[in-house]
Amino acid sequence: MKNKIIKRNSMENKILKLLKLVINYSQWILLLIIFIVAFALMIYAFNIDNEQLRNILLSIASSLLASSIFASFYNFLVQNNFVNLIKASIDDEIAKNSSLESLPNKIEKSIRKEIAKNDSLESLPNKIEESIRKEITKNSSLESLPNKIEETIKNEIAKNSSLESLPNKIEESIRKEIAKNSSLESLPNEIEETIKNEIANIGLISLPKEHFSASEQPNQKFNKLIQEELKSSDKYFFKGVTGRHIAARLLAVNLSNILVCSVILLDPRKNELLGLHYDDRFHKPEKPDINQEIEKIRSEIFTSIISLFSIAKNIAKNRGFKVNFNVHHGPMFYRTEIFDDSIFVTYLDSQEPSPYPVTYVYDKKSMYYKTFMTDFRHAKDSKEGKIGGQFTMDNDTSEDDLFKMLKTLEYPGTRQTLKKSIDEQPDEFTRKFSEELKKLTSNFQAE
Question: pLDDT tens digits for 415-438?
């Protein structure tokens, strides 16, 4: 029985010692973990290509290291000072009460006697407690020991006034350091900006920045926004059905900045696609002469191509402007107009039939910009049909080259009719709409 109890007590003592050891060094263990995490973040940051994410990780790691170093120093300073004060206080108390020195021996002696008298140890805890209480009663100074220790600590703090102002001194030191390094003042703003950029990169900024509802009349704000993008962009990529407004938009702005204009229109040879576009666009319950409507759409496509050829020839005389043209061989459910900073997406199969369907404008950082740009490039590089890929119109492109390309698209005119159409450029629609756009942009600038 005694052996079992002794073994159990021994095991409990070992566990208690282990717990005390962990508790005593818990702060240092935590600091060690923080150090490891900080260094791991630094190593990871230097191995990634994303500069913005690398800056965030390095900022976090440096902050962790700085706070860990400060916490280590402060913990070491406070722990050593206060432990020494408490130890000195206890030593003084023991020196004053000499009976305390023999207290452990008396307790041990009392325990041994009790064990010798009683083979059963069941009552031992109660008797040990009683013995301890008697010893405390004999030495009344023990009862006030905690209060005396506390009082000693307060006296020590009173003697060393610097301890009371330690937090303020730390804060003051940090402020001085920030004042010396002005770059630290903007750190929160830089972190916030970096986080916003990262959010943009993962597509959370993909909500449209502008929205234009379907309407029966042109939206002035829409046209103004398109013209502003043309002025500041060095590219204009268009994918749509007829491209009837492109030439007028190009004429209405100073094209000193645009280097290339790429246009993809619906293949005018595909009657079924032209008819599908008419049905999707207008949803008219009465069935008109569908062949007549198809011819109108086809005629607009050829007129747009000729207008773009004329503009390319005139602008390219002074600089390297060019228009890359190709046709699309599938259904056209949306129109895209892509600039350097934005993309305009018009849904042609809208449930609201109108001449000017619903349009959304997305930022270049959005996933929609990247997706529609990829779609445009695939269509631009397509080699389906007799056109055999994109056709470039610039200063070196002749009327004969244009006529041959148009004939592959089953252009109904002759060389004479083509030349007449070129000489009459810009046509009436292009000229009028271009003047309207010029007045619109000048009115907005005046306001």
Answer: 999 999 999 999 999 999 999 999
Tokens of 324: 């890359």
**Count of the separate structural domains present in the chain:** 2
Strand arrangement, sheet containing 260-266: 210-212, 359-363, 342-347, 334-338, 235-239, 260-266, 322-328, 391-393
Smallest CA-to-CA distance from 385 within 413, 407, 414 is with 407
Nearest in space to 345 (alpha carbons), one of 357, 353, 354: 357
Q: Using CA atoms, how far apart are residues 290 and 337, in angstroms rounded to an integer?
A: 28
Using a 10 angstrom Cβ sphere, with 0-12 exposed, 13-18 middle and 19 or more buried, the burial of residue 348 is: middle
Which residues span the domain enclosing 75? 2-201
DSSP letter for 254, please: -
Bridge partner residues of 359 (DSSP): 212, 346
Q: Which of the pair, 249 or 127, is modelled with greater confidence?
A: 249
Give the domain-ending residue among 145, 169, 201.
201
* Domain endpoint, select from 183, 201, 219: 201
Straight-line distance from the first to the last Cα atom of the chain, in angstroms, rounded to the nearest whole number: 101
Q: Are the beta carbons of 444 and 231 closer than 8 angstroms?
A: no
Quickly count helices (H) and strands (E) in the chain.
16, 8
CA nearest neighbour of 305 among 418, 226, 168: 418
Q: Are 393 and 308 in contact (CB under 8 A)?
A: yes
Distance CA 141, CA 124 (A): 26
Contacts of 294 (CB under 8 A, 6+ apart): 271, 274, 275, 278
Whether residues 267 and 186 share a domain: the answer is no
- How far apart are the C-alpha atoms of 7 and 19, rounded to whole Å? 19
Q: Tell me the residue type at 402.
A: L
Residues 50 and 115 in one domain: yes
Please state the rounded mean pLDDT for residues 368-374.
95
Q: Are residues 184 and 217 in the same domain?
A: no
pLDDT tens, position by position, 79-88: 566 556 656 6
Judge contact between 358 and 352, C-beta under 8 A.
yes
DSSP H helical segments within 122-186, as ranges? 124-138, 145-159, 166-180
Query: 153 near 89, Cβ under 8 Å?
Result: yes
pLDDT tens column, 316-325? 665 678 899 9
